[in-house]
């Protein structure tokens, strides 16, 4: 058993203990007994109080055993369980390729070493509903469909409401690297609306996670389908991408541009896949989408150049530059027949008003 697996099982056990059980009633306060005694007895020093009797010590021992013993498990057929829709993992997206190592491990051992968690559903189409262990359930279902119907699903029954089931499933999924950020984000959005009435602070407290982490995940869940489809695989979409893109998409100035780029990226990804080429990785997709929000700076309008005009109104040329440091540059290019005197007459006022000639 790996240390990570052991840690996860310990966390799950603690979670089930806190979610699915009712705290034991508090023992009767010793003061209630002492109140019936004579004053001399009440003033007796603590160290002189009689030790617990044998029957009391045995009762305490039995209570400790009841709290530490492993809960019983039962063996089920996968077909006896429906899948609780509140789990983060997309059951429909599971495949042999995604679960191959687990399938082979269960085939070799003849069972799932770590029990799944189910709850009874007396009024459901199936007698049990699977809360934790969707990959194990899928793997044994796959084995049943491939000549290994003798392998059964080891399960532990718990009594949980939907909010408790969500917290338990979330605790396991945090330890699972194969649950995508998008799956978890969408699961959190559903939970926030369904179990916590949209109160994020309450949800963060119940899950014992920082409020900012919850906010970041919910931003990822807000991304529109067009943006999600721009990524080659939903697993490429990370929390950091949602943190960058969600604020831009909320700005009406950028949203349409980003959606247009997302649609173009989606077509590009399909073409690359059809050609057998490597598709665009997630970080580059995010960069291109974010770049769509860059509004190009408008170029300042070019100032009209002063013209060199004859007294008759005919344009003789243009003043290209006029600076005190570099002087004046004039382009003379008459549009029609013009005498030299007319050009010189037109030049005089321009030269007199030039910057280099001003004091």
From TrEMBL:
Residue ranges of domain ParB-like N-terminal in the record: 74-174
Recorded GO MF terms: DNA binding
Pfam families to which the protein is assigned, alphabetical: ParB_N (PF02195), SoPB_HTH (PF18090)
Protein's GO biological process: chromosome segregation
Any coiled-coil regions, as ranges: none
Cross-referenced PANTHER family: CHROMOSOME-PARTITIONING PROTEIN PARB-RELATED (PTHR33375:SF1)
Name of the protein: ParB-like N-terminal domain-containing protein
Organism in which the protein naturally occurs: Sphingobium indicum BiD32
